[in-house]
Amino acid sequence: MPRLYEPGRKFMQDNARIHTAKKIINWLQEEGIELMEWPAYSPDLNLIEHLWAQLKQWINDHHPELINMGKSEEDYQRLFRAIYEGWDAIGEEAVANLIKSMDSRVNAVIAAKGWYTRF
């Protein structure tokens, strides 16, 4: 990560325990990586989680046979193909729409004092 980080930028991560562990926070500080302030509980602001949910729903709708898949190499290859197919199907417009929704999401989270919103 230090190779990707540029001074003046802020690193964003959610408040999962692994991200907020003292050892991680200390390492980030030692590396000079500035963190973005993040509400204690704010799933509405984590856009990747919304994309994961869309992808999971797409796979369930288009490949229901994978719901009870086994653990063979062939099963994993079928899942990987479905994931690639799903990402293509979701497309850039879905990502752009989520990004466009950030102002509304931030304002809703502020109004809800960090709790759930309609998003």
TrEMBL record:
Molecular function via GO: nucleic acid binding
Coiled coil: none
Tc1-like transposase DDE domain: residues covered: 12-62
Signal peptide region: none
Species, as recorded: Endocarpon pusillum (strain Z07020 / HMAS-L-300199)
Record protein name field: Tc1-like transposase DDE domain-containing protein
